[in-house]
Amino acid sequence: MLNYKEFVSNSHSLLIAPAGFGKTHTISKCLEFTSGKQLILTHTHAGVASIKEKIKKANIQSSCYNVETITSFAQKYVLAFYIGDDIPEQEDSKNYYPFIIEKATDLFKAKLIRDIIKNTYSGLFVDEYQDCSLEQHQLVLELSNLFPTRILGDHLQGIFGFNSEALVNLNAPEEMADFWHNQYALETPWRWEGKNRPLGQDLKRIRALLENHQPIELDRFSSLEVNIGDDIYRGTHYSKIFNIFNQENNLLILTPDSSRIDLRVNFIKRFKNVCFLMESIDEKSFYKLSKKLDDINQENIFSILREVSLELFNKTEFNKWFSDSGVKKRRIENFEVKIQPIKQKLETLRQQLSYSIVAKLLEDIKTLPGIKCYRKELFSSLCRVLEEAEEDNISVHKAMLNKRNTIRRMGRRVYGKCIGTTLLTKGLEFDAVLIVDAHKFTCPKNLYVAFTRASKRLIIFSNSKRLDSYISTTSAD
Length: 477
Known about the structure:
Blueprint lengths: L3 H6 L2 E5 L6 H8 L7 E5 L2 H13 L7 E5 H12 L11 H15 L3 H10 L2 E4 L7 H11 L4 E5 L19 H4 L6 E3 L11 H15 L4 E2 L7 E4 L6 H13 L3 E4 L6 H10 L5 E2 L6 H11 L6 H12 L2 H7 L13 H17 L3 H12 L9 H17 L3 H15 L6 E4 L1 H4 L4 E6 L8 H8 L2 E9 L3 E2 L10
Parallel strand pairs: 1-5, 1-6, 2-3, 2-4, 4-5, 8-13, 9-11, 9-12, 10-11, 12-13
Antiparallel strand pairs: 7-14
């Protein structure tokens, strides 16, 4: 059992724990042994929401802590105090976020900024530390000079490494500096206790295989639900997946390729839109389409509306209602009743532009018979920022930046039946996880994160009982 009081009493503490062993629970318990307001940093907006939820369940007052992503915390100070005019565009993530971290680290050396932070917080926790770039690590080291700092992580879950950034090495004494001398560990797989204890034990064994670059023989782990075959969109596999959708209310679908959103959208289409697409906080479509909507005028209103709609809705059904130039004429029952609100709004927009009416027009299109929205978060975000742009008299793009940055700070709860990536769901827990094409995972860390999201059922679809495509990679070193 971890001595929480001792852990938080050190000026620098390091906790190593596998997935599901209670890192987030440890943070909430540690707050019982701290005074003043604690700053809690992590990497993803879903992680922020997860930490907040667990702390709330522990009945700890919100005045005792603040949870943010590392980038949102750094961003606040850079946007408030940096006086240069060379900040990259936010959607240029390759340059924007390294710039924010670098400038924030410099700002944290200034006495004025240090005094502000010290007067606000009395301690720091950083979760998922294995995902820190070396630059983020330097930022944390700078903060650790201000108050007691505790970092929590697991080397086998270090899957970020954006833009070829080198990640911190939790096993390197010279990098860990003062943290190296106060190390702690968690040993019990709590996530599966009372839910599926054999799954927790099997995942411990699988972890050892991954750490030692050994293959996983799936049929040796009785807690796994393994399905062998080549095509999930045909025959019995297709039926099995639909049965799983019907059985589970809290379900995550994961695929090996995190880079291609079109593969996940295709999955949603093929399985009748029964799951929700988890979107990256800075997925380019949010910014591209908001800029596109800023270009609307009386002459191009329909062409831009069509372009945006084809990103949101099923093309075949959309084209049954609309041509390239406007509303089609159709001989179907109640056609005029269904299309009349859209015609009226288009006519109103040709007389006077209104972002609010554009939002309502998109909502009307979504309700047309046969229309399906495959990117529900993108749709709802666009509708909200159109309303806010009009209300606040700002551009749609600016409203979108504000909205995404708010989510970055406040977090976003994930629930229901979702399809996502390991990057978006690391730190989260689902009753059931369905892994598609498990044989295509080439990174042991991604595979480990995928497997350990499940607390009750881990369902695997693969073309082989033996997983070994990750063995040649050096990413686990």
